[in-house]
Structure formats: structure tokens, C-alpha cells
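Sample entry (173 residues):
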Amino acid sequence: MIYFVILMLMCFIMGLVAVASNPAPYFAAFGLVVSAAVGCGLLASHGVSFLSLVLFLIYLGGMLVVFVYSAALTADPHPESWWDWSVMANVSVYVLGVSVAALYFCGGWNMMNWSGVDEFSSLSLWRGDMIGASLMYSSGVFLLVLVGWVLLLTLFVVLELIRGLSRGALRVV
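Predicted structure, serialized as C-alpha cells:
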């Protein structure tokens, strides 16, 4: 199981590198989907399956719609692909930085935290992620409303930045 988790962590990091290194939104969308799917798989492997499913549905259902809409507004006739020199230079710098950080932080306290949320309570009637979800909706209502407001504000900011000097849908194509 530990090797599978390490493989998923490496795929997660490579997905984030793909998002950060590619300036074209068309190719960076694949890295975003890979990162979201592998991140939710990591959560599910640690026993937080309900939160993983909710995160996957909300993230890919909501934020990728905004991402696709903003990518459609930035029509680039010749986007840079994965094998362009500038993208490969960015990828190599990011992979080198992640490798140096991994060597620096390897060992120590972070190597002991590989247990799942349900590993220490074998006879419990409640799962850890179900209790967390109920607390999120009962005690964290203010935080949920705040996060929803921030996401709506982010939508308007992204659409305003993408619009630029044109007139939105009334522009000449």
C-alpha cells in the first residue's frame, strides 16, 4: 500500500508541475484533472472516502467549468505544447526544485504519518469522514458560506481579467 501511495504522490506532483509549467490553458487542463483525481485518490486511500468524493465532484464539476470558459475566451492560435523548449525548461526547473525539497524533508516526523483515519478505531460505529462532514455542515456553516462567496468572487475576477479590453460576447471574432 505504501508503494501505491508514493506512486500517487509522484503523479500528483507531476500533475501540479504540468499545470504550473505550461502557459497554454489547453494543455494545463490535463494536469489539473490528473492532480484533482490523484489528490482525491490519496484522500480515499487514507480512509476519507466521502470527503474525497465530494471534493472530486465539486472541484471538477464547478471549477473546471470556469476554467474551460476562460480558456475558450483566450483563443490562442498557436499554443505552446508539451515538447516546446520553454515548457521543458520550466518542467526541469520545477522537478529539480521538488527533488531538492524532497531530499531536504526526507525522513523525520513526516515519515510516520501514513495511517488512515479509521485505523485506530476498529470497533467504532462512526467513520472519521462522516463525522467530519456532519461537523462541516453543522458547526462550519459560516465557513461554507464564506467559501461559496469567495468562489463566486473568484469567478467574477477571472472573467473580468480574461475579458480585457473587448466587449465580452459582443466583440467581433
